[in-house]
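Page 37, continued from 36.
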């Protein structure tokens, strides 16, 4: 499954990848050109009994493929083709698709398939995280300039984060409440629900929020209860050093969650695996063990 609009996808590396995967396997290349295509094509491939569907694109393309084949015997293959490629790098793939394809092909050849858990929110699966509040507002700002994303990459995200902070997000009034089996947080400004760690990458540096977020454990919810710059930077200091966030009076961490709910009377934004999905008044999360079979790079 190829998203030809993704940042690192070119006609040349698509041919290189097809040739490498075709050495020992029959390969069909399918290009996607709008949101939802990859999910539909992946689901059809699973119905036809295809052994592996490979997502070659950004994290959003990978999310759609995983959603299409979740709960089936078809395995998920991953190739980095976007600007950040969080999930691909999390499972040990290099950020260069031409280098990553050898590891993927080795995994397919060895039938190195492992069942992994996924998160699900309002019926849709996610591979690595869902961002609620400020994080999603930043992604929304980036998507308004989607044509620049291929060329500007991380600088575009930084610019969007600063402009959203300055004038695009209410930093005075809590945006939602978070309910888990451990209780309720009434003053949520910004929550990240993790299925894996790191949360993202800043260049080559991982932003590690919680070592408890792994593919074989429940979800992790990290909630910022203030938008004061000093509190945000203090909370993220450990993440930037690779040690995870440090819970405090203004930062809450809940681990090994089977389910949680985020809601408010006033709609709030959310994004899923890097795709902005709009505003809502309620999000219902669930951890789904063994949701998909993943090709392990070898």
């Amino acid at each position: 499954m190829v998203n030809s609009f993704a940042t690192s996808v070119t006609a040349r590396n698509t041919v290189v990848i097809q040739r490498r995967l075709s050495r020992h396997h029959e390969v069909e290349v399918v290009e996607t050109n709008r949101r939802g295509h990859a999910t539909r094509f992946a689901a059809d491939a699973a119905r036809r009994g295809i052994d592996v569907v490979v997502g070659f694109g950004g994290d959003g393309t990978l999310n759609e493929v995983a959603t299409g084949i979740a709960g089936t015997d078809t395995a998920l293959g991953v190739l980095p083709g976007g600007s950040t490629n969080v999930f691909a790098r999390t499972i040990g793939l290099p950020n260069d698709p031409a280098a990553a394809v050898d590891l993927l092909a080795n995994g397919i050849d060895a039938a190195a398939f492992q069942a992994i858990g996924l998160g699900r929110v309002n019926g849709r699966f996610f591979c690595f995280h869902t961002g609620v509040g400020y994080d999603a507002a930043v992604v929304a700002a980036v998507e308004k300039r989607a044509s620049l994303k291929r060329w500007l990459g991380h600088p575009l995200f930084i610019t969007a984060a600063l402009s959203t902070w300055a004038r695009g997000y209410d930093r005075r009034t809590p945006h939602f409440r978070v309910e888990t089996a451990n209780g309720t947080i009434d003053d949520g400004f910004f929550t990240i629900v993790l299925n894996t760690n790191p949360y993202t990458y800043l260049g080559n540096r991982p932003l590690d929020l919680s070592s408890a977020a792994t593919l074989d454990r429940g979800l992790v919810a990290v909630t910022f209860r203030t938008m004061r710059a000093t509190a945000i930077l203090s909370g993220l200091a450990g993440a930037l050093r690779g040690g995870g966030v440090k819970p405090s009076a203004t930062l809450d961490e809940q681990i090994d969650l089977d389910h949680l709910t985020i809601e408010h009377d006033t709609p709030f934004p959310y994004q899923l695996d890097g795709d902005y999905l709009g505003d809502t008044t309620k999000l219902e999360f669930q951890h789904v063990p063994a949701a998909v079979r993943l090709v392990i790079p070898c």
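The chain has two domains: 2-111, 129-284. Flag for discussion at group meeting. Residues 129-284 form a domain with the Tumour Suppressor Smad4 fold (CATH 2.60.200.40).
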